[in-house]
Automatic annotation (TrEMBL):
Main location: membrane
Membrane topology listed for this record: Multi-pass membrane protein
Gene Ontology terms: cellular component: plasma membrane
Record's signal peptide: none
Keywords: Cell membrane, Membrane, Transmembrane, Transmembrane helix
InterPro entries: ABC_transp_permease (IPR001851)
Species name: Gracilibacillus kekensis
Top-level taxon: Bacteria
Location within or outside the cell: Cell membrane
Residue stretches spanning the membrane: 25-42, 63-88, 94-117, 129-150, 170-192, 223-245
One Pfam family linked to the record: BPD_transp_2
Name this polypeptide is given: Monosaccharide ABC transporter membrane protein, CUT2 family
Length: 325
């Protein structure tokens, strides 16, 4: 690479970073202030081990939130991702522990199950007038029920080191979950910012009728977004089951709410047509830091639900307020 090419690349990268800071300065300030407050109340917050713990815990939410951003930009919503985590986790572990499948095949089939649920959501959303809220609410119950039925409500243990490495391993000091996350963030960024598909999502979410008349295949766009959401929930289910050494039918309970909270905090409009993956990352970090900080301070999990609810309400109000002004 010549010096001129290198300089141009560095300038573009710097400009992109500065633009990112400008676009997200509000929530970035909120994240920094939150970190400062928690670190003053508990110095252990800034320890290397705890920071890695925050990233590891936040990664599962980010898997869901990445895809949820696309779905919400389309003007939809996906309430089924938490239940898909459970069903993909138990399917994967049962294929390994009960059926004796090779790990790679069990993982692939587990994620495929997640994609099937996502594809179903996308197909019904694209071909009927049933609201996405109702469709994914139904799928949420179906997937959760399936997880309980196939396991009889009991966890499925897997003690294979190769499988457990998927969710508990490290490369150097970096947890595997964070490495997967970086890969998926790059993929999502490319889709939303460098492809026609990304532009189509914004167009459909902004004005579906105009998008239709401009020749955009709305059905295919919706099918992709929901299938990708099922895929990412499947990935989260496999990683979480590998981390817990078992498939749990209770896994992913309320995970969809944390994902939606991260997306809304990141500036994505619930009415569709506006949002960025970069903002979602910060939103997920705020949720993760908030949960970790409350745990370090010994705050009851019951109160944590209340705090998260207030945060979501404030974020949605801020979004409505910005639109009015």
């Amino acid at each position: 690479m010549s010096n001129t090419t290198y300089d141009n690349f560095f300038i573009k990268l710097t400009n992109a970073f500065l633009q990112y800071l400008r676009e997200n300065r509000g929530i970035l300030i909120g994240l920094v202030v939150l970190c400062i407050i928690i670190s003053l109340m508990n110095p252990d917050f800034l320890s290397t081990n705890n920071i890695m713990n925050v990233l590891r815990q936040t990664s599962t939410n980010m898997y869901l939130a990445i895809a949820m951003t696309m779905v919400i930009i389309l003007g939809g919503i996906d309430l089924s991702v938490g239940s898909i985590i459970a069903v993909t986790g138990v399917v994967t572990t049962m294929l390994i522990a009960v059926a004796g499948f090779p790990i790679w095949l069990a993982v692939a089939l587990g994620i495929f199950v997640g994609m099937l649920f996502g594809s179903f959501n996308g197909y019904v959303s694209a071909t009927t007038i049933i609201p996405p809220f109702i469709i994914t609410l139904a799928t949420m119950n179906i997937a959760r029920g399936a997880a309980y039925v196939v396991t009889d409500g009991k966890p499925v243990r897997v003690m294979d080191d190769s499988f457990n490495f998927i969710g508990s391993g490290y490369i150097g000091p970096v947890p595997m979950q964070v490495i997967y996350l970086l890969f998926f963030l790059i993929i999502a960024y490319i889709i939303m910012n460098k492809t026609k598909l990304g532009r189509y999502m914004y167009a459909v979410g902004g004005n579906s009728e105009a998008a239709k008349f401009s020749g955009i295949n709305i059905k295919k766009v919706k099918l992709f977004a929901y299938t990708f959401s099922g895929f990412m929930a499947g990935v989260a289910g496999v990683v979480l089951s590998a981390r817990m050494f078992s498939g749990q039918p209770t896994a992913g309970d309320m995970a969809e709410l944390d994902a939606i909270a991260a997306v809304v905090l990141g500036g994505t409009s619930m009415t569709g047509g506006r949002g960025k993956i970069g903002g979602t990352v910060i939103g997920a970090l705020i949720i993760g830091v908030l949960s970790n900080g409350l745990n370090l301070m010994g705050v009851s999990s019951f109160w944590q639900y209340i705090v998260k609810g207030v945060v979501i309400l404030v974020a949605v109000y801020a979004d409505v307020f910005k639109k009015k002004n």
